[in-house]
Amino acid sequence: MTQVFTPEQVAGMLQLSKNTVYDLIDKGEIMAKRFGRIYRIPAKSLSFIFTGLDSDLLYAEKEDLKNIDAVQSAIAKIRRGK
Amino acid sequence: MTPPKIKVFVDSDVIISSLISNRGAAFILLHDQPQLSLIFSATQPEELNRVAKRLKLNLNKLNQLINLKLKMAKSKKLHFTGTEKLVIDPDDRHIAAGLIASKPRFFISYNLKHFRTEKIKTELGVVCLTPAQLLQYLRSLN
To answer: Chain A: nearest CA to B95, how far in angstroms?
Structure first.
């Protein structure tokens, strides 16, 4: 199950005020789901906090890493002159 | 006035990765970032061709990429003096020699564990990152 956070928790993690987090949600910079009057923010929206990368860039890096072992093994063999 | 392009030295694993998937960070870095000047060393075209053949990749696509997107480091003759302290695997010394010759601002590789990145930063002033890390940095400039 996807982990979710409250705006207050995210404000603490990012060292921002709660109002700034609500502003970022309004601007679409933090993706959140609204349930009536409350918001919940999925961990995926906070990719940058956990990985240093926005979620689309994390996805793009993972896409390359699927094949990186084969790529690096081929490069290593050629660099070793095999 | 257009700001000067950011000089980026690209390792072979990034160039090859960009040929495998057009959704990966390597492809985005090499195709969609006009503010970058992408550099590689004189020894890499042959290496890239051999790797592409081994992995059965499209050689035409590789050569198009080399001709259209990448610039060869100005110094065609690589000097290996001082390169041994910048790498962990001596087989990567030609990449270190390329960094010394081209003086980029960034070195981009998926194989940073084989390079002494702190030494490269302190001695050459070159920041070592993965493709996605550089893309993240570029976002912070906008």
So the answer is: 11
